Amino acid sequence: MKDTIEEISLVEIFQLLKKRLWLLISITALAAIISGLVSYFLLTPIYQASTQLLVNQSKNEQMVYNVNDIQTNIQLINTYNVIMKSPVILEKVAEELNLNRSYGQLNGQITVGSEKNSQVISITVQDADPKLAADIANITASVFQREIKNIMNVDNVSILAKAEVSDHPTPIKPKPLLNIAIAIVVGLMVGVGIAFLLEYLDKTIKTEQDLARVLDLPILGTVTVIQDHAELKKRKKAYN
């Protein structure tokens, strides 16, 4: 009995969605179109550039690397990450690049991180201008390399790789195809929700089953539609 009820419920759901198919298609198509227009024409493309720093003590040719020195450098990286995004560094970056941006705006564009147990620090910058993103990354690295000598009295930072701009840079966001796919899924969900809401609010009686459900009475018989006598006569004549 339970399986029968579930089967009937699934059939009713399928019939409901089929009846409101135009609504589902319309809402989904509208969501996809709006998402595409916004992604391609309204959202500003954002580009990304990265540069890398190596934290390592200066060594003479005769000296051998010490494991303790490496561990010390790794522990210093967390401190370097904080200093690199501090006002003492970023304000000088903005000054050298003549950027009309506050410390908070510039700080929000820069991400600093390092791999686990690695002596390499990555500086990643996002900006609407790919060249400016690369310039900010490179200048941040050079300013930090210069200023860390005065801040912590150490000279163990070198630039490993500079940020460069390709001939045809590709923005990292927005991603129009992904946005459109998400909009299609959301549009379908909204369409299904509206379809069920409209069905719930629709109290009109259209079929015998609706009448039986409202009155809670079984259907003993139905009256078919009687066609017009003249129409029947025409059909009979055409058949003969």
From TrEMBL:
Describe the location of the Tyrosine-protein kinase G-rich domain by residue ranges: 143-197
Q: Where's it found, cell-wise?
A: Cell membrane
User: What is one term from the GO cellular component aspect held by the record?
Assistant: plasma membrane
What residues does the Polysaccharide chain length determinant N-terminal domain cover? 6-97
Protein topology in the membrane: Multi-pass membrane protein
> What's an example of a GO molecular-function annotation for this chain?
protein tyrosine kinase activity
The source's superkingdom equals Bacteria
Q: Where are the transmembrane segments?
A: 21-43, 177-198
Chief subcellular location:
membrane
Q: Which UniProt keywords apply?
A: Cell membrane, Membrane, Transmembrane, Transmembrane helix
> Which family would the database say this protein is a member of?
Belongs to the CpsC/CapA family.
This protein is called Capsular biosynthesis protein
Q: Could you tell me which species this protein originates from? A: Calidifontibacillus erzurumensis
